[in-house]
Amino acid sequence: MITFPNIKINLGLSITEKRPDGYHNLETVFYPVALEDALEIRTNPEAQQKFTLHQHGMEIAGNPENNLVVKAYLLLDKEFHLPPVEIHLYKHIPSGAGLGGGSSDAAFMLKLLNEHYNLQLSDNQLEDYAATLGADCAFFIKNTPTYAEGIGNIFSPIELSLKGYRIMIVKPDVFVSTREAFANIRPHRPEYPVREVIRRPVAEWKDTLINDFEASVFPQYPVIGEIKEELYHQGAIYASMSGSGSSVFGLFAADTTLPEIDWGTNAFCFKGTLSE
């Protein structure tokens, strides 16, 4: 059985305060985009071990046991005593890009196991499981435009459609760790709250829908800021870094022919049309 985990982009991201537990409260909008991995499971009753992970496509660092799809399988296995499986994961979503690729893989694994083995878990139950794997994992259960607050784990549905807009996502050959991105963040209440700005026309977002991480990441990695500037130069209506980086996306009008640009050695570029 196969499924196709997709990414999210962040529309605005305000770091509002540092919590007593050391985490940060934030506000953002998660928006799904059809840049996808491929994830397949096959029951293997003859196997001597609970799981085997076969990884394809982009290289993933770390041991298989630490991969979020494996953690998702083991999480449900504790309660439902699942049969041994072979897991095939084809990675097309770049890591360290602020696109939630690993979180999406984990959430889609939960949904895949639920369907394949008829576990009869509701979306709310799946969200509870997903939340234990990562703050934004639960978003990918319902996978619809969502306003997020808290540490990115408190969700509210929003009415927002960008259907028809063209999108370009560029990730240079740079990895930005979440810890690194937070290092120079100064929490504050935004002048333009994300929830209010998102109701305005996209053409008004440029100076009001802000990703706070840009202020700390761009000075360290100027190439990321340069990509944002170039997307605007090429006609983007709105451009922003996604999450804590290092990818940048640009939204273009539906009738736009997206530009052909050499973004540099080992840079990743995705072009598509939004369907939500």
Q: What's the alpha carbon Rg, rounded to whole Å? A: 19 Å
| Class derived from helix and strand content | alpha+beta
- Biggest β-sheet description: 4 strands, mixed
CATH architecture of the largest domain: 2-Layer Sandwich
Helix content: 25-40%
The total strand number stands at 12
List the total number of helices.
8
**Strand arrangement in the largest pleated sheet:** 1-4-6-5
Helix and strand topology:
Blueprint: E1 2-3, E2 6-18, E3 24-36, E4 38-43, E5 51-57, H1 68-80, E6 85-91, H2 101-116, H3 123-131, H4 139-142, E7 146-149, E8 154-157, E9 166-171, H5 178-182, H6 194-197, H7 213-220, H8 222-233, E10 238-241, E11 248-252, E12 268-273
Helix pairs in contact: 1-2, 2-3, 7-8
Domain GHMP kinase C-terminal: 213-253
Domain GHMP kinase N-terminal: 67-141
Organism: Bacteroides caccae CL03T12C61
Provide structural commentary.
Residues 67-141 form the GHMP kinase N-terminal domain. Its EC number is 2.7.1.148. This protein is an alpha+beta fold and 276 residues long. The chain folds into 2 domains: 1-155, Ribosomal Protein S5, domain 2; 163-272, Alpha-Beta Plaits (2-Layer Sandwich). 26% of the residues lie in helices and 28% in strands. It has 8 helices and 12 strands. The strands form 3 sheets. Strands 1-4-6-5 form a 4-stranded mixed beta sheet. It is globular, with a radius of gyration of 19 Å.
